[in-house]
Write a structure and sequence with these properties.
This protein is an alpha+beta fold and about 60 residues long. The chain has 3 helices and 2 strands. The longest helix has 8 residues.
Length: about 60
């Protein structure tokens, strides 16, 4: 569902552009930004981690 919604916002989005076969792999790759909780084979929950440390670097 996340991939479908993201596709509506960014029609040219493709995780393969970032070196990942699936959206789940892309989220795992950026585990410093996203929290991932897997619940079953196809279901997972995603949320952003707090980005305060990133904002201070800018």
């Amino acid at each position: 569902m996340l991939g479908q919604k993201w596709g509506l916002l960014e029609t040219d989005f493709d995780p393969r552009n970032y070196g990942c076969k699936k959206l789940r792999d892309l989220i795992k790759k950026y585990n410093d930004i996203f929290e991932l909780k897997i619940s079953g084979k196809r279901n997972f929950l995603v949320r952003l981690k707090k980005l305060i440390s990133y904002c201070k670097e800018w």
